């Protein structure tokens, strides 16, 4: 009766307002759909059990055509599934669409417009698909699998992206490794803290084939906009009861993988990652490695995290040879190790490796990484404290001893005494070792040194920058080529000034803006501080054409820069970051960038971390005001406005000190681990 009264009211309103009859029927159908779906979907089930006994329809009649003018009510729009488009353009209703003007197949049968190419056919929307994705984000495997089985029973098609998300969850999500190792699971807060500590470890993304999307941590709730015409999604509950066991996870992955094969879905990187993790859960690193190889055979890009399940499995077996073989495979795919991959090497070496193994890995880490997570450093300490092979360092060099350590470790008297054999010396681990601003470490009785890129790395780095710059600039790549030619004629330059960064420093205030006077102060400071260095000021071209560029003193300053060949403006539409980065890297060890930019822009993530991070550590000078007076720009003597914060006189990376043979390992909490040779008791 309620619907009848509502329909009657709509008929009356249409007569009064003289609405077209098709709009009338559209409004009636909309009201009926709202009433039916509102009673089913408006209130979420009270529990998982309640949901499992509730049937949600596949919503076809809500696929509205929203191509009409704005302002038309949703209930006035006819469902797209009920409308057909004719050759004449207007839409007709129901069976009428199969009459005159309807498109036909070759055999003369009428063809529904939804099957026409480019007709904008809309897929059936099933609210349970969206609910499954939210179940993945809430880490509720039981709920997600129940939804999957419901859809499977109703022959609802599911794609690879959705199945990858479910398989990601079924492998243990971000805690798959704790499952594989048999460790207690973490709470959401503990998992977030662990991820923060492992700063260099690649984040785990939802394995849906889209490698650029970051997976939300378990327990998070991601807000999504409600699309018009779709029912309100019932809230996905938090997981109830104990977490699934390892056996339950494996069974769930098997069930999902079986569906993918039966449905003919093509696996991608996310699928292979889930299958490799499944093997790790079963303690089968050989099987995990086979999925890596299968991914490569299928022509899919092999990513670092695809190797992780096999690495973990072999670490648990203390199989040094196999972990090193995987390390070689990673290099064969032109991939660079991150801290995670190095940590697996250190883990297996600490358990069953030799000193030669450890030293080789630490020397690679010196080149590729900077500060390390405490958990990574613990493996280094564990080797020296618990692996008898650490004593090999004190043997003669031809017997595997370390040059320098075997001959004269810290505190040795003469060479003969120092070379008395492995039994004369031992390693001592000093945690929380202090390093002064000058690099001196009392525990090691020596100073840590500057470690910069090697010559071959400089060439590879500058080539990569130039290639990315040209790609980034597209059809304007010739502008960058012109800049390179200009640099060849006038370079190299020792100091590069990011003029925009300097000009806008502390200008986030009333009356602030691009300040050429600050750039002039910085240039004069650098000339006074480094009289023999060539300086290059770089800025966007538009800054030379602004009104502020005509302020008193600015034209004269720009003229001075041009006469000294100390000025280059980047062309319109170009990212000046590529220009000053190229110039600074071309200067190799002598290059210094003056900027407070933290260089977190996404473009820098395109560069190899082993090059970019080491360069960033050594070749950026920050600055600040000498005085906190906001009016100091106008009153300070030229060159006295700023103070520079130059890079440290040492590099915070793993290094062995030649004077004592001690190993110095920086930790990302600001402390150091010192492992020094001392006389045996």
From TrEMBL:
Its EC number is 3.1.26.5. Belongs to the PPR family. P subfamily. It comes from Volvox reticuliferus. Its main location: mitochondrion. InterPro entries: MRPP3_PIN_dom, PROP1-like_PPR_dom, PRORP_C, TPR-like_helical_dom_sf. It is found in: Mitochondrion. Its cofactor is Mg(2+). One of its GO terms (molecular function) is ribonuclease P activity. Residues 102-115 have a biased composition (Basic and acidic residues). Residues 436-669 form the PRORP domain. PANTHER family: MITOCHONDRIAL RIBONUCLEASE P CATALYTIC SUBUNIT (PTHR13547:SF1), PTHR13547. This is Mitochondrial ribonuclease P catalytic subunit.
